[in-house]
Amino acid sequence: GYPNLPNLQLQPQYPSVALLNWTTGEGTAKYWTSKLLIDTVDIENDQAVVTQTTDIGNQNIYSQGFVGKNNRRWILIINK
After folding, report:
1. Alpha carbon distance 50, 36 (integer Å)
2. Does residue 33 form part of some domain?
3. Order of all β-strands in the sheet with 73-79
4. Which helix (H) or strand (E) holds 48?
C-alpha cells in the first residue's frame, strides 16, 4: 500500500509511471527515452514542420519532422 498522503497534498506515485526503478534507482525505459530526446533536441533552434504519416490500419505510428537553424533535419517516430 501507499502512505496516507492527503495531509501532505501529495498524490501517490505508481511504479508504472516512474522514471526511476524503485529498487535500484536506475533509469527506466521512460527515463532513457526522455534523456535521449533532451540530449538530441535543440529546443531553441529546432522548429517543428508539417509532417504527414501514412499508417495503414489503426494509426499506430506517429511522426513529427524538425528542421534546425543549421539545416539539420530529423524525424521523431513513435509507435503505439
Report:
1. 23
2. yes
3. 47-49, 61-67, 73-79
4. strand 47-49
Calpha distance 39→12 (Å, rounded): 29
pTM of the model: 0.59
Alpha helices by DSSP H, listed for 8-56, are 29-40
Longest dimension (CA), the chain: 52
Q: Please enumerate in sequence order all residues whose Cβ is within 8 A of that of 1, keeping only pairs 6 or more positions apart, or say none.
A: none
pLDDT digits (tens, 9 = 90+) for 4-17: 556 666 565 666 66
Range of the domain at 57: 44-80
Same domain, 30 and 54: no
Could you tell me which residue, 13 or 30, shows the higher pLDDT?
30
Task: Using alpha carbons only, give the angle 38, 40, 73 rounded to the nearest 5 degrees.
Answer: 135
